[in-house]
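Illustration: Rv3651-like C-terminal domain-containing protein.
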Amino acid sequence: MSTEDAADSDPPSAMAFDWDTDERVFCVPDGAGALVGRPQVEVREAGITSADALRFVEVDDTLGLVQAMLADVPTEWSGSATLRRPTGPVAVVANLIPATEHRGLSGVLFEVPGAPATAPVESVAMSTVARMSNVHVVVMDVSKMRLLRWLTDPPAGVAWKGQRDNRDTPHPDDVARIFAVAAAVLNGSSRRGDLDGIRLRRQQGGWLVVDAVGELVEGSDPPLLIISMIERGTSDEPDPVPVDDDGHPGL
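Result:
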């Protein structure tokens, strides 16, 4: 490439961001959705949830990143990843260091021009499972019961907490059951939990009903659960929670 060609070409895309460990959100600049080719990605003033961000930025070392994000004492992390753009995958590198103004990390994500970017076999397989069987798999932070990283596409149309407002996604009558299972995992009395008939708030009203099973990730610190959700149907029960409710403090 000549000097003139290089001057006329677009520079590699890059984006700075912050991760807030306490709030479990990424704070990103306006227009961040354009980096992944999805300008319509909604970025709330409070930030974007990790489950949303990591749907479009697929990190090779997911467990290492998640453990760095949740560490009591923030530590550096760097690694390769893939942007999932509608036009095709793009190779990127992410570098994170401990933040100076809050508990968490500051980082930068930048493209690697010319580097190959292909979907890992595991990623393709998991996405295929979701399309074939309505099974959806996610990594969850047990201590706060926060979704961290979808391993498949999430169930369609669900109003996850932090995307539109701060209401808990599960029906309030199901929250106590969820926390009972989480408590058993945290106190070491169980590595696995099963919950049937969990109602998840839908964007258009009503509830998506799922059966869920979770198992503790071996050696994870802080403890992480792999949750599988199977769609069972919908419910038109009225929503008893007002839109300005902030939900359970641990969710």
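Reading the tokens back as a structure: Confidence is low (pLDDT under 50) at residues 1-9, 38-43.
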